[in-house]
Amino acid sequence: MSEKPFKALLLEKDNDEFKASLKTLSLDDLPEGDVLVSVAYSTLNYKDGLAVTNKGKVVRGFPMIPGIDLAGTVAESSSPDYKVGDQVVLTGWGVGEKYWGGYSQMARVNAGWLVPLPAGLTLAQSMGIGTAGFTAMLSILALEKMGLTPGDGEVVVTGASGGVGSIAVAVLANLGYTVVASTGRVESHDYLKELGAAEVVDRSPFAPSKRPLESARWAGAVDTVGGEILASLLKTMNSGASVAACGNAGGFDLPATVLPFILRGVNLLGIDSVMVPYEPRVEAWRRLAQDLPLEALDQAMHIAPLSNITSLAEDILKGQIRGRLVIDVNA
Ligand code: NDP
To answer: Residue 45 CA: which ligand 1 atom is closest?
Structure first.
C-alpha cells in the first residue's frame, strides 16, 4: 500500500469555532482498525447534513471525518474475514459520528462493521442505497414480520421524496403493494409515480386534528417524518396494522394518545439502522439487491463530488434533495 497522501473532509472545533474543510491527510493520521478501505463513494444522509453544518449534535468528538456510509475496496486487512481487493460496504455503527467516516479517500475501520458488497450491485449503487435505503428495507422487513402482505390494502410512505422514502416506495411497489406516497413537494409527484406509487398525496391530510381517532385507511406505514404526521398516521391505521417509525425529518415529538393502540391494536415499530447485527444486516442487503429494481435506483440516485458537500448538506436540511445523493470522494 503506497503511503501517498489522500483527501478527506475534516470537521474541527477550536474553542467553539466550527470549521469544515477538505484536508490532505496521511495513513498515519487514521485511527486504528483492522481493515483499510480505499473509499470509492459515500452518501449524503439527513444525519450527514446535520454533521457537516454542525447542527443537531451528531458529531461526538473533534476532529471528525463525517460520512455515515462508505463503499470501497479493501487495501489492507489483518482480519480473516476480508482480503485485499474485496469490495465492501459500511453503514452505521457510529461511523461519521463517533468514528472517522466515509468523506475520505481512505478509511480504517473495524472488520465487524463491514458487509461484503451485495451480489448484483456496484459500489455506486450500494451507496445509492446507503443508510437511507438500508433503513427503508429494515422498515419493510419489520412490517413483513408483523404479517403485512400486498393483499392487505394501502401502505403509506411519508417524506416520500427523501432518501428513505424513495427507496421504500420503490421496494414496496416492486413487491406488489399498493403504495401511497405522501410528499410536501408538488414537483415530486411524477417522480414518485415513476418509482411505483399508486397514488401521491399531499402532507396536509396528515395535519393535526383534535380527534383521537380518524377513519382508518392504512394497512401499513413507513414514517420518515415523525411529529404531527406520525401522530396522524396512528389515528388512521387499520385495526392491527403497524407503522414502522424510522425518521424525524418533521420533528421528534409525538403528540399522540394511547387510543389507537388500545382501541385498534395499532403497532408502533421502532427502526434503528445503526446497531443492526451482522446476520440481519446481510439479509437486509440481500433483500435490497433482490427487491429494489435497479431502474428505480438509477432514477432515485445522483452522484456529486465531495467538494460540493457543504452546500449539499444545507440543501438536505431544507428538504431540497430528492432521492439519494451519492458522494464521489475521488472527484
Ligand atoms: P431526506 O432529507 O432525504 O428526506 C426527508 C423527507 O422528509 C424530505 O424529503 C421531505 O419529503 C420530508 N420532510 C422534510 N421536512 C419535513 C417537515 N418539516 N414536515 C414534513 N415532512 C418533511 O432524509 P432521509 O430520507 O435521509 O431521512 C429521513 C429521516 O429518517 C430523517 O429524519 C433521518 O434522520 C431518519 N433516518 C433514520 C435512520 C434510522 O436508523 N432510524 C436512518 C436513516 C435516516 P417530501 O419533500 O417528500 O415531503
So the answer is: 26
Does ligand 1 lie within 6 Å of residue 315's CB atom? no
Question: Which residue spans within 117-159 are E strands per DSSP?
Answer: 154-157
157-173 pLDDT tens trace: 999 999 999 999 999 99
Please report the atom of ligand 1 found closest to the CA of residue 135: 42
21-37 residue pLDDT tens: 999 999 999 999 999 99
Domain 130-270 has CATH 3.40.50.620: no
pTM: 0.97
CB of 130 closer than 6 angstroms to any ligand 1 atom? no
Q: What is the CATH T-level fold of the domain 5-117+298-328, as seen in this structure?
A: Quinone Oxidoreductase; Chain A, domain 1 (3.90.180)
Terminal Cα distance for the chain, rounded: 21
